[in-house]
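Please check this:
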Amino acid sequence: MRSILYITGTRADYGLMRHTLTTINASSDLSLKLLVTGMHLSPKYGHTVDEIRADEFDIAALVATNLDEGTGQSMATAIGEMIVAFTKIMSANRPDIVLVLGDRGEMLAGAIAAIHLNIPIAHIHGGERSGTVDEPVRHAISKLAHFHFVATQEANDRLTHMGENPKHIHIVGAPGIDGILGLASWSRDQLADELELDPARLVALVVFHPVLQEQAAGAIYTRTIISQLLERDVQIVAIMPNSDSGSDHIREVLSQASERGEVRLAAHLPREKFVSWMAVADLMIGNSSAGIIEAASFGTPVVNIGNRQNLRERNRNVIDAPPEQRAISDAVDDALSARRFERCNVYGDGHAADRITKLLATMSIDAEVMDKCCSY
């Protein structure tokens, strides 16, 4: 039986991977453990390790990091601290494969530790573009990884052009859309009633994260989003941002708006409620990858602001806007006018978990795989 160690650091990656992790855990050919770190262990970000425990996954270790400073320096320091801790944990557990997703620092730390311990790395969602610091971190993880589980043909082609061995690149789709339609089980009336909102009025789901290169302007952008929605009498449900540099500026603006009664604010929403809000909202606005990847499965109009998701493959429901008042105003009007889009998603067919599980159980992890080099 092959042992898999999945590294999780945020509510976002865990939510995207929950269905896949459940499928892996149910496989008779695989054993799964989770290395839990980052935002999961902070009450400020919802202490979401409790959700992992409730799902009864086997936790190999908990690695706490300092998230209080919220600066580029603290982010870089945390990566170094995680490399040290992860190396000790992986040396003690010796998994057959380390599984990572996306572009965050904890995934980079895990890949650096694993490759130096000669442990195969499987990377999900490589080969994509997004701008900001996320893109180079994602590509760095791809160059460290031995196997690539990509979402689209375009991502497959990009990794091939980057010199990754085509034999080790597999198009599986995006794990985040697996089972998403069934997961959105809360009705608009139920959700609105819980937050004392009027289901007959317009409502927007706001998920806006800091961008390292634009952290000083995050508060201004957040105020603009709120003001444009309020001008149109749109009710607002907002989720606190992640822990990246500049998050405190955004958190402060959202907290003040919540105190004024302008926003219904949550530090975290369980996955079922989050995707249910995404399904029933009249629009989603911000810069979350959920708007780019998952919202299309519901046909929800999405206003994507700024550079955080720059150059990602788009579905038809995404309306891009620079972080300027006039552009955001026009984009919100376009989204509200569109009402709904066709439920069509370039990121897959909702069966990524089965493909990933089968590959983890059957792909060769011999010495040739471990001897990485550019394929041209």
Notes: The radius of gyration is 20 Å. The chain is about 40% helix and 15% strand.
